[in-house]
Amino acid sequence: MKRRTSIASVSALFAAPAMPLAAASSAVPATLTQHFAKAKLLARCHDRASPEMFMRLMKLDGDTARGGFNLLQDKGVIGNGIDGITRAINPLNTHCVPNEAVRATDLAKMASDIAKRVRDMAKRRLEAVEKELADDAPEPETSDPEPPKADA
After folding, report:
1. Pair 61, 38 in one domain
2. How far is CA 107 from CA 33, 79, 88, 135, in A?
3. How confident is the prediction along the chain (152 residues), in pLDDT tens digits per residue?
4. Residue 37's closest CA among 58, 19, 15?
5. Nearest to 69 by CA among 103, 35, 113
6. How many CB atoms lie within 10 A of CB 99?
7. CA atoms within 13 A on the CB side of 21
8. HSE, side-chain direction, 13 A CA sphere, residue 23
9. Is the domain of 48 the same as that of 71?
10. Fewer CB within a 10 Å sphere, N or C end of the chain?
11. Is residue 71 a contact partner of residue 77, using CB atoms and an 8 Å limit?
């Protein structure tokens, strides 16, 4: 037996119990690290990510795609989303047409804000016109006071 391999194997026996369990379990499989850079680029370019997207675009199997998706979440590239679709934390193209189109809640909120602003502007203009008409209108003539009552 070679001296280097025997010393390494003996030292590994003593070091393994001292190693925390979390450090041993956090090791990422090599297949995920191979695809991490491409998955990160795809998530940031598309401003969204899902395991199905990685399966389709990177031609991965389901387990590898889910592992890559979870790794991106753990590394903080994508946030936690609803229904398995998440948004990139720091997207590359923020003003792309597809990115604006998927922001339906933002668009709906913007539309309701614009409608409210238009109503407020119309209300202020109507009040200004009514005030202007009230200022320009001639004073209504007051009727003569009641004639004095005759004592009979």
Report:
1. yes
2. 37, 21, 19, 42
3. 455 566 666 566 555 555 554 444 455 677 777 888 888 888 888 888 888 999 999 888 988 889 888 888 888 888 877 666 778 887 776 666 555 555 555 667 788 889 999 999 999 999 999 998 888 766 666 665 666 666 65
4. 58
5. 35
6. 18
7. 0
8. 6
9. yes
10. C
11. no
Distances (CA, A) of 27 to 14, 37, 90: 20, 17, 25
Q: How many domains does the chain have?
A: 2
Query: Do the Cβ atoms of 53 and 46 come closer than 8 Å?
Result: yes
**Enclosing domain of residue 67:** 28-93
Q: Where are the alpha helices (DSSP H) in the chain?
A: 3-18, 21-25, 30-46, 51-58, 62-75, 97-101, 104-136
Other beta carbons within 10 angstroms of residue 68's beta carbon come to: 28
- Whose tokens are 């387990």? That residue is 63
